[in-house]
Amino acid sequence: MAKEARSLHGKVVAITGGARGIGKATAKALARHGAKIAIGDLDKPLAEKTAAELDTDAVGLALDVTDRDSFTRFLDQVAERLGPLDVLINNAGIMPLGPFVDEDDATARRMVDINVHGVIFGTKLAIPGMQQRGSGHIVNIASQAGKAGIPGGATYCATKHAVVGMSEAVRAELRDTEVEISVVMPSVVDTELGSGLHETRALKKLAPEEVADAIVKALQFPKFDVWVPASSAVFDKLLHPLPRRAREAIGRFMHVDKVLAQTDQAERASYEERAERSEPGLEPEHAGPEDASATESREASSVK
Asked: Does domain 12-298 have CATH number 3.40.50.720?
C-alpha cells in the first residue's frame, strides 16, 4: 500500500538564502501547497519582494546566517509572524572556485562560515522547539560535491562533506524523536551560483524548480538522502564498490574533473564578485548597498 503524502498546507517553512535561485524556486513550490513561507536573506528588500510574489502567507526577513544572534532573531520573527516553525530549509551557501593553492584564507573562511556554520546554527536553533512540539523537519542543502572531491572546488567540497556528515550524525541523535532530517544533494543547477559551469557527459544542468520539487517530495514522503536527479543515487551505488583508481578514471572519462576546474571566468565574474563581498558577521541592518548585493552568493550550493 502506497504511503500517503504528508500535507504541507498551513505548515510554517523558513528558507535561508531564499530571495533567489533554488531558495526562491522552493518557496514558490511550497506556496502552491499552501505552506506559510518565511524568506530569510542578507538582502531584506529582495526577501520582502520575493515574499510578496508568493500566493500564500509569506514574510521577507533580514538574515545573516553566519551570525547566531541574527539567526535567533530571524526564527523568533518567523514564530511571531507566521507561527511555530515546522520546517527549516538551510539553503544559503557560496561557491567561489579556483585552484586550492591560489585560494586566499578570507575566501576559505567565508565558505566555512556561510556553508557550514550557517547550517549548524540553523539546525541547533530549530531542534529544541521542534522536539518540544513533537514534530519538525530540517532540510540541509548540500551538493553532490559533498560525496566526492572535485578539482577546482576543494574548500567548497569540504564544506559540503561537512554538511552531509553533520546531517547524518544529527539524524542518528534524533532517531527516537519525531524530528526529521533530510540532506539534499543536487548536481549542477542553472542559477547564478552555477554560472560558467559546463555540462558534461554525466552532468546536465538542472532547473532550480527540479531541486525545489525534490525538496517538496522529501517533505511529503520523508527521506534522508535526496539526490537530484534521483538517477545520481544509482550511479553513486554502482561506483562505490570500485577501487579508487577505477572511480577516478571513470570520473575523468565523464569529464567530472573539469566541472569546477574549467569554468567560463567571464560568465562567473559577476557571481564571484558578489561572493567575495558576502562578509561573515556583517549585521544585515548595517549592510551598505554593496554588501546587500551579495545575496545571490547565499543561494543554495548546487554543484556536483
From this structure: yes
